[in-house]
Every structure is written in C-alpha cells, then in structure tokens.
Amino acid sequence: MFIKQNESTAARRTFYFTATNTADDSAYTGALSGxxxxxxxxxxxxxxxxxxxxxxxxxxxKYEATAGECDTLGELCLRVAKAGLYxxxxxxxxxxxxxxxxxxxxxxxxxxxxxxxxxxxxxxDLNTILDAASxxxxxxxLRGFFRLAAAVLFGKSAGAGTGAxxxxxxxxxxxxxxxxxxxxxxRTSVTTDQT
Length: 195
Description:
This protein is mainly beta and about 200 residues long. The protein has two helices and twelve strands, in the order ββββββββααββββ. The protein has a five-stranded mixed beta sheet, with no helix packed on it. β9 and β10 form a beta hairpin. The protein is elongated, with a radius of gyration of 33 Å.
C-alpha cells in the first residue's frame, strides 16, 4: 500500500498488524506504544514509534503513523518490538503522489492538453510515418515493409517447389506481393510490390 509523503489525514497513514504472545501463542491485547513499536524510514535505522496503536480485537491492532514518520520517500516499516511478542513487520511505501486522488493521483499536468507539451508543428500524421521514404531501408517504406511481411507470413502462396514461389496480399488477396526465385535451395532473386 501507499502513503502520500507528509500525509495529513491520519486514517491514510494506518497500519494493521497482529500481536501474539510468544509464551503460548495467545493474542496480545495490552497497550503498545513508543519502544514497543519500531519505525524505519527508507531503510534507515529504527526509531521508537511516535504514533498511536489501538487494539481492535483478538490481537489485531491498528497503528496511525504520524505525518513526521511519513516524511521520507521509500519504504516505511513498522515492527512489533515488545519483549514477549512475536515480531510482526508491516511495510508501506511513501510516495510523492496522492493514491487517494481519483482523478490525477495529485500529479500536476496530467490533465494538461498534449498540445501544451509539444508544439503542433512537431506532430506527425501516422500516414506520413508509414509512407516516409526509406524508413526501413533504401526504397522500403514502413507501410511497404508491413505489406510484404504480411504477404509472406499470412498470405496465400503458390509455386512452392517449382523454383518460383509467390506470396499474395495477406487480406485482399488481389495481387502477388513477393516472388522469390529459388535455385539449389537458395533464394537467388526477389521481386516485390509494395503498392
């Protein structure tokens, strides 16, 4: 789970954990505070807790971390450290954004129009990209590459084993896109139609 850095709403800084006695594995229902609970921020040294732990029922507790305990980005660890109780470690991640903001996570510029980030003059139409000369290699456009590859991969073929294999347009099946001349199991020439 995530906690916003310096979160001001206490309920959003809450950890839930269990406390169990080591002597008989029974639920612990007493008080927990200060040195009973240890806090580590972003992998740093542990410190005594400053927040409030409340027993809910049958050894289930909730701990509301303070805003000061949530001031460092990274993992925030809560560890039960009271003698006679099993260690129970819970981890949350302190983040710079607001996981409770449904519209933009509290991040700026998510609602900004794309045109405010990139000038319209820099936009390229998809057809312009597909038909730009020599985009794949000399005299082969991206659209032409897709047409040729689709013909060989998905189109009907004819002439297998005759020395002249032909691959037709994949969907329209209206023309031969690739013709390969085969000699001694080697393709010696290829004729293509990208149009």
